[in-house]
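Course assignment 3, question 2. Fill in each field.
Student: A.L.
Task: Predict the tertiary structure for the chain below.
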Amino acid sequence: MIKIVYLMRHGQTLFNELKKVQGWCDSPLTELGKEQARQARKYFQSQGIQFGQAYASTQERACDTLEIVCDLPYQRKKGLKEWNFGRFEGEPEFLNPALPYGDFFVYYGGESQEQLMQRMNDTMQAIMQEVNNDLPTLVVSHGAACRNFMRVWEEFAKTDTHQRLGNCCILKFAYEDEKFILLEIVNPNEAEKK
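Answer field:
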């Protein structure tokens, strides 16, 4: 059976607005972030998409986004958290090294890119094993977490994986035979400013 899952980034936060590194630390959604979540909700409604189940990172910004987007009770999963940037948490984004980050943050108490990819994939696999109905699943996570999960399955993607993942962007995956196939990337807030 093919299952559909929508993996979504949270709305804009105060740290996004201030251009601060935001991994395992947290900051609240801005008014724009709440509006972005409402636009995502409108997108799902306009497409007639009804979810059977919902999951979010344990971080406040992801939970708050999900609660605006969907009225379902949901499960919180630590494995959906953002990349752990160690001592760089809360610091200005300009301090980040050039991409790819690889193991950089490990030396500062954070995670490697490989650890993040493995954690996200393990969590998404476990979620899809729990799903026992034909309705789509909503998962709300974070920018780097979503991007790196996409990288795990890039070879199977049916769309351009180099698109910008704005706040509240939506990644539509098909899941079959323990494989995730990226079908579409939707940015319901195209006019947003980064």
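Instructor remarks: Residues 166 and 193 are 9 Å apart (CA to CA). The beta strands are 3-9, 53-57, 75-77, 137-141, 170-176, 179-186.
Grade: pending
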